[in-house]
Hints:
Layout: H1 18-23, E1 31-36, E2 39-43, E3 49-56, E4 63-70, H2 76-91, H3 96-112, H4 115-124, H5 132-148, H6 158-170, H7 174-193, H8 223-234, H9 240-252, H10 256-260, E5 267-268, E6 273-276, E7 287-290, H11 293-306, H12 327-334, H13 346-357, H14 363-369, H15 388-406
Antiparallel strand pairs: 1-2, 2-3, 3-4, 5-6, 6-7
Helix pairs in contact: 4-5, 4-7, 5-6, 6-7, 8-15, 9-11
Amino acid sequence: MTVTVHxxxxxxxxxxxxxxxxKAKPADKPxxxxxxxxxxxxxxxxxxxxxxxxxxxxxxxKRNTLSLGTYPDVGLADARERHAEVRKLLAAGVDPGEHxxxxxxxxxxxxxxxxxxxxxxxxxxxxxxxxYKVKVTxxxxxxxxxxxxARPVSxxxxxxxxxxxxxxxxxxxxxxxxxxxxxxxxxxxxxxxxGRAERNPxxxxxxxxxxxxxxxxxxxxxxxxxxxxLRACDGYTGSFVTRCALRLxxxxxxxxxxxxxxxxxxxxxxxxxxxxxxxxxxxxxPHLVPLSDQALTILRELHALTGRRRYVFPGGRSPKRPMxxxxxxxxxxxxxxxxxxxxxxxxxxxxxxxxxxxxGFRPDFIEHQLAHAVRDPNGRAYNRATHLxxxxxxxxxxxxxxxxxxxxxEKVVSLKRKAG
Length: 420
């Protein structure tokens, strides 16, 4: 039998039963339905029912109350089980309340140092070119976080990362498995640098995956075939903006993202220069592209149409956005060039091969114009103006050579250069 009393007064002398709990009705003041050993169910006027345990702290002997959950989420049997566990701690001289606080703090620390938390922090600090961060984030969201995202970085071991990579490998995406594993390794190195892990277990997985297939961007390097490609670009019947991109791509051989994000503010037609800012470049260094007479002709023609807008090659759906990443690729397919025959990126490989093997320009001139990491004999990185005069000559000679291939002339003027 229970009566309404002050919370500090006992209510029942006998152990509780499920029936007694269900029949108990709230009153104007809180009621204690006691079960024994300091365990009781606090029945509040708002009908809330809380399991509580009163005990005295070790050493100080001060009274304390510990919550063990709410009824009916925690039933009578579960409450007694929790009660028994905390009484064991008390018997061993451990304050159950302080133990709970420490456990909660440890859990919060584990959560704060989980792989997902650390990875997202690492992602926020990346300064990648447009679109790449989105791709890496999607990889982590879909293929990594569901499996190991909640695990503390300090506890992760190599087999866990290997399982993540194996799942990707099993669906045939071997290259993606390598890329994601590489990203995981970078996250772990960041965790070490920020004091949340002591070692990088991903480093132990070298050679554990199937060999990644060599990836080459499809490119046409045969001179006769290049001529046909240039004529096809000139005769493209789709969008005028896309046709201009097709015609300009072989003349400047920049990366696709750099071309489609070109802005008129970056181009100086009078100086015949295109300066690409560092944040748009893969190597995060500003890049200068000397413009040949042929390139200037295309740009001046296009300027009449898009010169008042931000982008040189605005998108078809919205002029406030750059051309689609698929625009030139789709145009190449429309012209009959298969995926394994020619790619947008292939214009770079075309220039690199022919400038070196056929026209004989110095490799460092070519590599610098491709915006690759080029260093001098002393290990210093070249700046954007290094060998600019020579690169201007190279770009003009390249444009002239492409004109000859386009015209399909049988006698091509030799532009062979001496090294030096």
